[in-house]
Amino acid sequence: MRIEKQHSTWGFSLEGGDKCNKDDMNEDDNAGDCKTSGTVTPVWETTTPPEIDSNMKNKQISNSWSVGINSTQKDMLDDDAHLKVSYSPGKKGGNFGLPLGAKLTVPEGLFGKKDSISCQVAPPSQRWRHSPVLPYYEHLTSEIFILNSTVHPLKKSVIVRIPYYQIDSEHNEINVKGKWKDEEEWVNSDTSSPCIELEIDRLGVFVVTFTPKKETFKVTTQGCLYNAHMSKYISVRVPKKAAEKNFQCAIQITPITEEKVKLAKEFYPFETSELENVSEIIDLIPNFQCTFRRAVSVKLPLPANVEVENESANTDIAVLAKLESGWELVDTKYRFTRTTVTCDVKSLTRFCVVKSKPDRKKRMAAAVSILEGRCEMEKGEVMAFINFQEKTWFLVLECFPKNKLDSKIAEMKEKGFRHFKKEISKPEEPVDNKQHFRRPPTIKTKSQNVPVEFEIFDGLKWTFNVSDDLKANLDSDYMENKDLQYYKHLPESLRKFVIEPKTTEERTLIGAINLTPVGINDQKVREASTMALRIEVDEETVKAYFHEEVIPEEPEVKKEKPNLDLLRTPEIKVDKPTTPFTPKFKPLPASVMERLMRTSRPQIIIERESKAITGKSLRNLSKYVPEGLTLAVHLDLPDSTITGIGFDAISNGLSMADVTYKILLYWKRTRKDKKDLAVEMLADALREMGRVEAAHVVQECHKNSKEVTPEIYSELLSKMALS
């Protein structure tokens, strides 16, 4: 599988549609020129990075499209038909538009007249059926594309361009995962520059993901001085004989945005009150844990907008390292430049540089620990939207960031949906009536009094169930899967199904959707993420659901009896027909009849081949006579034919029996007589090459009109041995 990507701003526009012309794929054209149905936001960029080599430049395609994405404005009640297209390219092939702005190029001669190829995008409510299981550091950044074809496998490669959503390209890299048709394992395909283009000869399920960028370097026992390419402010200096053996080390950078710092100070004011600024979290990860014999110098960048002019005056800048016990202050002498700080350590691990208030560096470990856990978290909301129709109640259960709350409610309200907010489920505290000895009171910090806010992160998953007076319709996919997963980098994370009353009582119904987080061990976070959505349906809506429409009976139309007298036709007197005259012919003489029936063409006599040289007989015979090339010489085949068959056998890896079989078939086709003379010629050739027993078997089978089989071959050999 070959993959090419264009260099441009990360992201793409979504559009669904039909076939596109080649002219629609030029840079100067509009992305909307293709006949599509959907929203398009084209952002054309043609910047070429200096790192791309000449080979990559030659492979760049004319369409440098990369776009920013908007949420689809489709009706929530649609059946997602716009997410599936099917084409019959025919023998000419061509360029075709796929859903959400994807492109397909089919080469000429790949498909026949009746063959077809289809592409379907997994809708958000059905994403759980195809979503791969990813590690914690890998995230989806595109929709899931499912490609199928009536031709399998493909004789030629097709080119598929998969769009993806905007990501932070400075600290992350794109990857493509594919799952081939009729297989279960997902395959990684490493990529190096944006605009994904796949050249594949097998169809299946494809999705674009991204992982943090990593840069590796080698450390030897003779020392190492490495300056990182990811950041010019990071370097590692390992002195000679500091390491016991050679090892590989990886550099990875995790940014901490100002918004994350602001949220951490809001929720954890006690731990973060002394924090003023912080750098990225920088990982120096060796492939095995080791303690150096001599100190290793690590140079790290200072926090943003922090510069050092006088080393002695900077007692408020600290370097923290994450050890087995947690974050700890690196208590060594710091060496500053204007934008970096260098310290000596005895092991490589995760580092972070912070600026604190004067003489408060020792309190930075708790602050960095909180920031580390909040790098990928944000305030979130889970909400249920219900559209009450007379006979159908559509429910949409969706998770989204809290800053989209007002726009999401307004959008769903326009489509006729009512919203229901969550209620945090707090576990009841058991009442303990036992008497205990008085103990010193626990000193509570300010942060312990602050309730834990509900936050979401990519991959957060809940199991949910519909309870109380409501239930899910059995025809929906609720019965197959009861999980709701949040996809941070995709526009929608939702489940759709139909609900209905549990009983036939016409009263006000109160139902609930209970959500329990999966895979969260922290008790406070688990309690904040456990919730219930209370749904109240008024009595009028319930009555409208059970109301049976009375169809008025149509009045019977009285049929008038037709006047049959008008339909009667007057009788017409017809004379009786006379007997027709039949002429008599004289019989022809026998000599005349014989002359008329005689044919001038010679009689065609169908000659059948001997059963000893049928295809089955020759196949079985070739297993006992592997010396095919020798047999070809005794059958007087041309030298050019023998040489061609020999080279063909070598190139295709044929066995000796296969070579003999091909020679016998070629010899048989060249013979006009396929009975006695052919059998005699084959038997003579076998005797000349020393295979008397094979010649005897061929002649006996011809004599008894039987095919050569392993049983007959063994039986005749036994008789020859006894005689």
Automatic annotation (TrEMBL):
PROSITE patterns: DEATH_DOMAIN. GO terms for biological process: signal transduction. Transmembrane segments: none annotated. Residues 30-57 are annotated as: Disordered. CDD domains: Death (cd01670). Residues 631-702 form the Death domain. Residues 39-51 have a biased composition (Low complexity). This is Death domain-containing protein. It comes from Mytilus edulis (Blue mussel).
